[in-house]
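Hi all, a correction to my earlier message: I attached the wrong file for Pectinesterase. Here's the right sequence:
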Amino acid sequence: MTPRRPHLELFNPALPKTDHRSFTIFAQLPTEIRLLIWKNALQRHRMIHVVLETQVRRGAGNKAKAAGRYSLLNALDRSISGNHYNVVVLNRNALLPINIMMVNKEARGTVLAFYSVQIPCYLKPSVDTKSKLRPKKSILRLNLDWDYLRISTDDAFLLFFDFLHDLRANDPQSRGLRHLVMEDSYFRIAEMPSLTPTYLDARTLAAFTATLTNLKTIWFKSTPHDGRALDVLTWMSVNVFNYSFPVFPTFTFFDPPHPDPRNISRDLQNVGGSVSDWRERPLGWRMLLRKFGIRPEDVEGNPDIDVRMMIAMNREEDIRTREDAARVLHEEDFSWLQLQWWFRGWDSPQPGGGGDRPAGCFTTASGMRPSLPELDGPEVLAAAPRPALGFWLFPVEAFGEICEDKDPSLWTRSRGIFDLSSHWPDLALVDMS
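and the right structure:
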């Protein structure tokens, strides 16, 4: 059993225990009322990770594939870009609300009608390409008003544009993607110089432009594998534990973002970046738009589009349940305490007390430091914000100026520490029930 550490108790609310009493008069309500209740229960945000993989066809050359573009029709009798790629969905958690699907035929019909966009796909439990498990063929059902798509490609950047075209073709309302989440390694600056409008045919480019006009959300996802324990051996300029930094688990459903209600002022002063500068994502996106003759100012300046940076510590591989979260958080806390003890030599006590290091100094990657980092005492832990499973949303400008007219190497920085205290973030909590 995990020992109780109050400052590690999750901020995410847990579902109250109920005896599952039946609402016996529900079946007697008019059909219209029942359908409204079902639909209201379905109106929840989902975040779905879609990976686009090039389909390898033996005996079919590139010329044969190109000849087949737009020659196929989908179930709506509309042209799609072709069958040269597969849509792979990482389904570590249930994609549809199983609790509603299992009630009765009427409930299942309401769910399927709500998620009206249908995309042929393959389901995989992990992004691991070496897995011996064969992907399961399925249908990805979407409601583009409520669903946020994380889109990755399998070393084939142009598939992104084909997918946007085909998503519009499979949308009964012909609007296409509404909520786009840029993956961490996507729209890298290095990819942009070689990309030109000639890479896209007129139909795909028109679909991309039309998708932009209907977008409601553009979030640049930055989820490094650290960000809470900022030790001086790695970060050099700080040695603090950022209790507020959200943890990004495996999830499907999440709550609408609202201003973080926790007391996070102290932690906002030291927000750790990642190996690449987070500003490279919006810079790469802007470079892409300009390549296609689209002014980024017209997109990001649109008040109807939510353009923000989405940050958290990535623990998707480790956390799928609240129990997983408790274990991971306690392990992280213990590792941090071990490091602080090591700084003080308490891990190797000498006869008669004391440690094996000179009092008041220790070695770091940047040399000897004259004093020990502070150790958070009970009063700090008592006031520390409880850990949140979810993510923060900041305005893009919170991370500093993005200089499009300068060489990125002159102003980007690796593993920078950001002072974001002048920007209070929104917090989106994920559903772990």
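Sorry for the mix-up. Residues 105 and 111 are 10 Å apart (CA to CA).
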